[in-house]
Write a structure and sequence with these properties.
- This protein has about 270 residues and is an alpha/beta fold.
- Helix content is about 30%, strand content about 25%.
- The chain has helices spanning about 65-85, 105-120, 135-145, 155-165, 170-180, 215-230, 250-265, and strands at about 1-5, 15-25, 25-30, 90, 125-130, 145-150, 185-190, 195-200, 205-210, 230-235, 245-250, 270.
- The strands form 2 sheets. It has an 8-stranded mixed sheet with strand order 2-3-4-5-6-7-10-12. Strands 1, 8, 9 and 11 form a 4-stranded antiparallel sheet that branches.
- Helix 1 (about 65-85) runs parallel beside helix 2 (about 105-120) and helix 2 (about 105-120) packs parallel to helix 3 (about 135-145).
- The longest helix has 18 residues, at about 65-85.
- The protein starts with a strand and ends with a strand.
Length: about 270
């Protein structure tokens, strides 16, 4: 049994609607959280997640229902209309992985309908870790949203297991093939970071690098990105406190260098610091 030395600081979002918040990448964003309001449900357990570790935030409340999500979203959009501040984007995010919800596809349809009714200029965005895109209903629903933002932190399986901690089987080669199946209707989002973390093994700590900004990571990742042919790439680094100590932001220069390589490959790319 091994784990990382914890650093307790987390954000648990209200459910099913939160915000609006100002997003670094998306503008005025109204959040849609398909997970319980009192905990985290995710198919990853990333060491950099602002919501903390899964085991520290087991929810007691149920998932919000499809009907509850639609009712609360309409209520909020009516309020925002009255206040004269409509969102730029409706973003599926929150306490874990939104595509885990059993009615994700139907909720996407409800949100698109309400968007068209109240704020037709707003984009519908989904932030996903890609673990459910093998499900046909999830794939088809993501084809219907404006911004299908899927995570690909690296193509190195050892790094993925060390940093993203997927629950169950995560085959990065299969994920890449599924990403190609969106035929370009996909935005790839990648976290770049530096630092060393303390790995605890039988009570003994050892330092382990979590850098993914070296050529051994960036080169193969860039080749995968070119094969996927996304409409855009979003690269970013740590912005908030993390549950694991020792994580450091990638520098502006490092992110800019990676961004420029993506752009040179003919793919639009933004970097958020």
């Amino acid at each position: 049994m091994c784990n990382f030395a914890p650093h307790m600081s987390t954000i648990i979002y209200p459910s099913p609607i939160f915000g609006p918040v100002h997003s670094r990448r998306l503008g005025i964003s109204l959040g849609i959280n398909l997970l319980p309001a009192d905990g985290k449900v995710c198919s990853f357990d990333c060491i950099y997640c602002e919501c903390g570790f899964n085991e520290d935030h087991r929810p007691t409340l149920p998932l919000p229902t499809r009907e509850e999500v639609a009712a609360r979203l309409e209520e909020k959009l009516l309020q925002m209309t009255a206040e004269g501040q409509l969102p730029d984007v409706l973003t599926f995010a929150g306490n874990g992985e939104p595509t885990c919800h059993p009615h994700f596809a139907e909720i996407i349809d409800d949100v698109i309908r309400l968007r068209n009714q109240y704020c037709p200029r707003a984009k519908v965005s989904v932030l996903s870790n890609s673990t459910m895109i093998h499900r046909q209903a999830v794939h088809d629903a993501l084809m219907r949203v404006d911004n299908n933002i899927l995570k690909l932190d690296t193509v190195d399986p050892i790094y993925i297991n060390k940093v993203d901690h997927p629950n169950g089987t995560y085959d990065v080669e299969k994920i890449i093939e599924r990403m190609k199946a969106f035929n370009g209707h996909i935005i790839i989002q990648t976290m770049f970071m530096r630092g060393e973390v303390t790995r605890l093994e039988s009570g003994v700590g050892s330092q382990e690098s979590v850098d993914n900004i070296g050529e051994e990571y960036v080169g193969p990742w860039l080749e995968a990105v070119k094969a996927i042919k996304p409409q855009q790439v979003m690269i970013y680094t740590i912005d908030r406190e993390t549950p694991t100590e020792g994580l450091l932001k990638a520098t502006r220069e490092q992110l800019d260098a990676i961004r420029d390589r993506v752009i040179a490959a003919g793919i639009p790319c933004t970097a958020s610091y």
